[in-house]
Amino acid sequence: MKKMLKISFTFSNAWAPQLVLHDGKCPLCAKGQSHEEFSYGIENAENLAKKLSENAEAVSQYEQEKNLLKRD
């Protein structure tokens, strides 16, 4: 799970520079919006992706430690 989230986040970052408004519409949802609204939405999405990735990493670490304790 941890690897999948990191790959997804890396993929998102790789494509983020290409995400621009097309004729005043979001390329993902086709909603008409200003550049400021679009930038705000992309920034929020990136922050959420980062938090989800960090949470997944913490859960993965917890599960690994829990499994080590079970072995002892």
Task: Explain what you see.
With 72 residues, the chain is mainly alpha-helical. It has one domain (2-71). Helix content is 71%, strand content 0%. Helix 1 runs antiparallel to helix 2. The longest helix has 37 residues, at 35-71.
Short description:
This protein has 72 residues and is mainly α.
Mean pLDDT: 79
* Radius of gyration over C-alpha positions, nearest whole angstrom: 17 Å
Strand percentage? under 5%
The biggest sheet, with number of strands, parallel, antiparallel or mixed sense and barrel status, is: none
DSSP, total strands: 0
Tell me the distance between the termini.
Answer: 25 Å
- What is the H/E string? HH
Provide the domain count: 1
Number of helices: 2
Task: Give unreliable regions as ranges.
Answer: 1-7
Q: Which outline best applies?
A: rod-shaped
Could you estimate the helical fraction of the residues in percent? over 70%
Structural class: mainly alpha
